[in-house]
Amino acid sequence: MAMGRGKGKGKNDKKDKDKKRGAKNLFRRKKFCRFTVEKIKQIDYKDVDLLKDFINENGKIIPARITGTKARYQRQLGDAIMRARFLALLPYADLH
Fold first, then answer.
1. What's the DSSP call for residue 8?
2. In the chain, what are the helix, strand and coil shares in percent, each to the nearest 5?
3. 23 contacts: CB under 8 Å, gap ≥ 6
């Protein structure tokens, strides 16, 4: 049984982390909430053009961690998309 080997940090651990961070942050834009910038108080389910921006090609709602939408507006967005889907303004899936 050799002491100091196995689970410890190697010489190249810090270099690998720096390489990953550098490549990750090169083309990153600052996230912002579109609804706060445009001063929208309530998201309307009839505004299909706005809602389409927050749905991917499969029909799934894009999460707030990707879009940068605040939690309050993300909840409103989910409700508005569900209502629009129920009234057939938006598709449930890409095959319909």
1. S
2. 45, 0, 55
3. none
